[in-house]
Amino acid sequence: MKEKELPLHLREDNLSEETKTLISSLPLSKDVIGNLYNYKGCWYYPNTLQGVLNFEKGFKPQETDIILASFPKSGTTWLKALTIALFERLKNDTSSDHVLQTDNPHGLVPFLEMSLYLKSSTPDLSKFSSPRVFSTHMPLHTLQLPLTDSPCKIVYVCRNVKDVLVSLWHFRCAHLKKEVDMESLFESLCSGVGSFGPIWENVLSYWRGSLEDPKKVLFMRYEEMKSEPNAQVKRLAEFLGCPFTEEEKEDGSVDKLVELCSLRNLSSMEINNSGKTFNSVPYSTFFRKGEVGDFKNHLTPEMENKIDMIIQEKYNGSGLKF
Ligand code: PAP
């Protein structure tokens, strides 16, 4: 795929002179898409790094801001849908279509570094009403810098690394319109050199943050959201300060919200079949199987073992278990 055909955040043509100088001093690596630079322990494609720097420079938090964080392919779209639905229900507006019918969760909750701050450190955020909900794949220490002393809340969703790899592989194949080599994606994940990697650093930053300040950082797991969606949605609602009332718990509101945000329901909506992100990624590519353990269909036992060993070693002593 030619450079110009890639989504903007993956390209290298949006860099300020300051950023060009900075990246010349950063560790450099490559993957199938292009150059990756290591900034504060995390690997970024060049334009994404520009977005990170713009965000660090210009983001002014509001007290009620909510930031949804994840490593790519860990349940970002789902978490966005659930959060939007939780706040929408408070509006009690049944006169028009639900916002999830008219826009994709990524359109409703844009990424800070890959969308809003991609081109500017002072984007126009006036269309966002309180609570403003944003998203990110940055690790917690980078996200937290502009949030120092701000009470805004962060929700992180984490997923089994092997399923993340398989999901990423499918997404890349759809995106690049060719069969991506699984072996090289696997090697890049294991080495930690990949967009927003290493995955274990990303996960551990939020895991530790949630232990240090559980009122500020909520740590969720994709697998638990699958196995006990109602309990996890109630947990999310409480953390965000919009718990379900007793009446709602009894009248089936939790079930309805879970169903509204289910993969089956979202992926059948017209908007998610015909729409695209601002940088031309079809919304449909964010919905696939949504299964726990799909890695069994794609990875060899040797690959599984290697990932298990790495993750066990990296998470050792952190209290985080899979
Ligand atoms: P992103 O980080 O690029 O935004 P993200 O939404 O985290 O992607 O990951 C996509 C995965 O979430 C896909 O998993 P799969 O490839 O294993 O199938 C996708 O199917 C799954 N997903 C998307 N929406 C939902 C949902 N509503 N419920 C459960 N899983 C979902």
UniProtKB/TrEMBL annotation:
Taxonomic source organism: Eruca vesicaria subsp. sativa (Garden rocket)
GO molecular function, one term: transferase activity
Name this protein carries in UniProt: Sulfotransferase
Family to which this protein belongs: Belongs to the sulfotransferase 1 family.
Superkingdom, taxonomy of origin: Eukaryota
Domain Sulfotransferase: 64-319
Coiled-coil spans in chain: none
Key words, A-Z: Transferase
Keyword ATP-binding (UniProt): no
Enzyme Commission number(s) of this protein: 2.8.2.-
A Pfam family that the UniProt record links to this protein: Sulfotransfer_1
